[in-house]
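Hi! If you just cloned this repository, the fastest way to understand the data is to look at a raw example. We've pasted two of them here, unedited. The first protein comes first, obviously.
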Amino acid sequence: MNTLRNQVQLIGNLGNNPEITNFDNGKKLARISLATNENYTNTQGEKITNTEWHTVVLWNKTAEIAEKYLQKGKEVIIRGKLTHREYDDKEGNKRYVTEVVGNEILLLGSK
């Protein structure tokens, strides 16, 4: 049951092509921006689409798959975990980042 404590599944479309970083130690990182849409009808009867943007990071083999098969607009399912981190920017300001660290990708739609 511990694996269910921090689990995220998102279905959405890529907002850009994966940004790939290759490290000296042989590790690979792919960073993608994923848009998920929620549709609802408001009290006036208007259909509303709310789009949320998620930053997803993928490592090593999963990053290689992303580099090879993912492109802007592609619909995918991403499974992983939610992470939070902080860092100091160049001006010394503390910045906070929330990301999904993906460990599975499922391509949707046609080839």
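Ok, and the second one:
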Amino acid sequence: MNQKVTRIISVLLGIMLIIFGINKFLNFMPAPENMPESASNFMKAMIDTGYLFKFIGLVEIVSGILLLINKWVPFALLIIAPVTLNIIMFHLMLDVADILPGAIIFILLVYLFRANWSKFSPLFKS
């Protein structure tokens, strides 16, 4: 795959993850007002735990920084993959109308996994 395109996608994903991660601490992008009640209740429950929402934010920030500085990229992709999958599932099940940012993150992540597949393929050999 083209290294320049891969690097641009890595930087773009890193920036998005850092912004969304910091938002979990500073709340400068409030949740949409038209969010379905079930989605709102789920988000509130994560926030009410006192740690889960911030932990997710920390994972987003750490993986975003690693992608930006181009260090431990496979590790960054692995730690953000479950978060990204949950973002997609949240939107598919509870708030499909606001799926676009999550879908973009998911698509960028899939591209980067494919671009770094040589580092992951040994995990699937017997």
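That's it. A detail worth noticing about the second one: The chain has a mean pLDDT of 95.
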